Amino acid sequence: MVDADPGLFGPESVTWQMHGDPMMWVAGVRALYLQALHPRAVRGVMQNSDFRKDAWGRLMRTAGFVGTITYGTTEAAEKAGARVRRIHRLIKATEPETGETYGIDEPELLLWVHCAEVDSYLQVERRSGFPLTDAQADRYIDEHRHSARLVGLDPVGVPATTAQLAAYFERVRPRLAASPEAADVDEFLRRPPVHPLLVPARALLWRRVAALAYQSLPPYAHELYGRPADPAPTVDRRLRTAGTVLRCIPARLRWQLPPGHILNAMARLGPGSRPTPYKLRSRAAILDGPGRARKQA
C-alpha cells in the first residue's frame, strides 16, 4: 500500500475530501448554468455535440472525468487530460453574426469553463455546510491548477486563491450574456427529456436539484437569465438542508454507483484514504492555529 500511486491530488488534499460529498451533483448543475453564460463557450458545445439528445451522457462524462482525475492514478488522470485536449483540438465553432471560426481550445474559453466549475464546486459545498476554512478554500483552488493543466491551460495564468477567482469573474462579466444557446441549456436543465415512467421522478427530484443549483448562482447570472431568485440567506438554508439530507445516506451506499472511483481508490491505497470532511476539521485546528479555523469557517 505504501508504494501505491496516490494520483494527481492524493488523500491529504482538500479535493480528495470534498469531491466525495453528494452535494457535488448540485454543484455540477450550477457549473452548467454558469458556463452557458459565455456565448462563445456555450456555442462551441451546442454546435459540436448533440447536447439536447445526449445531455445526460455529457453530464456523466464530465462526472467521470472529475472522478478520474480526483481518485484515479496519475497515469489515468494524465490519459484523461490528453484525451480531452485531443478532442478539443479538433473542434471548431462558428460565430453566426460574423462567420468567424474559432477553436474551442482557446485559452479564454478553457479558463472560463475551468473557473466556472471550480467556483460552483466551492460555492455549493461551503454554502451547504461542508467544513472548509478560508485557507482550505484557497488551497482547493490552488490544487485545481493541476486540473487546468490537464485540459491545456498554463497553470501560471489560472487563479490560485478565492480572491484571484473573484477578480477573474469581475474581469469576465462584461463578456457574459444570455444567448439563445444559454436559453436552450436553461430549458433542458429545467425539464430534461426522460422516459415517460420517469416523469414523476423528474418532477419530484430533478426539479428540486436544478432549482437549487440555479438559485445558488450569483445575482448577475439571475439577471442575465431573466429569472428571479430568492435572497441568498434563504438559498443558503435550502443548501444546508439538502446537504444534511444527502449526507445522511451512507457513503458506502453512495459510492457503489458506477464507475466506483472512490471505492477503487480506497482499494488501491487502503482504508485510511477514505474521503471525509473530518480530516479537514482536524487539519484546520492544527494548521490554521488556535481559534482561526472557527473564525474562518
Q: Main beta sheet: strand number and arrangement?
A: 2 strands, antiparallel
**Beta content:** under 5%
**Order of strands in the sheet with the most strands?**
1-2
The global form is: globular
Task: Provide the helix percentage.
Answer: 55-70%
Radius of gyration: 19 Å
What is the rounded distance between the termini?
34 Å
Residue stretches low in confidence (pLDDT < 50, at least 5 long) are: 289-297
| Count of spatially separate domains | 1
Mind explaining what this structure looks like?
It is a single chain. With 297 residues, the chain is mainly alpha-helical. The protein has one domain (14-268). The protein is 65% helix and 2% strand. The chain has a two-stranded antiparallel ribbon with strand order 1-2. Strand 1 (92-94) and strand 2 form a beta hairpin. Helix 2 runs antiparallel to helix 6 (107-127). The longest helix has 21 residues, at 51-71. Mean pLDDT is 89; it is low at 289-297.
The gist of it:
This protein has helices spanning 14-18, 24-35, 39-48, 51-71, 74-90, 107-127, 134-143, 145-150, 162-172, 180-190, 199-215, 219-225, 232-247, 251-254, 261-269, 277-287, 292-296; strands at residues 92-94, 101-103. With 297 residues, it is mostly helical. The chain starts with 13 loop residues before the first helix and ends with a helix.
Give a quick set of tags describing it.
two-stranded antiparallel ribbon, 297 residues, globular, mainly alpha, disordered C terminus
Please specify the SSE layout and strand pairing.
Blueprint: H1 14-18, H2 24-35, H3 39-48, H4 51-71, H5 74-90, E1 92-94, E2 101-103, H6 107-127, H7 134-143, H8 145-150, H9 162-172, H10 180-190, H11 199-215, H12 219-225, H13 232-247, H14 251-254, H15 261-269, H16 277-287, H17 292-296
Antiparallel strand pairs: 1-2
Helix pairs in contact: 2-6, 2-11, 4-5, 4-15
GO molecular function: oxidoreductase activity
Pfam families: MPAB_Lcp_cat (PF09995)
Domain ER-bound oxygenase mpaB/mpaB'/Rubber oxygenase catalytic: 16-247
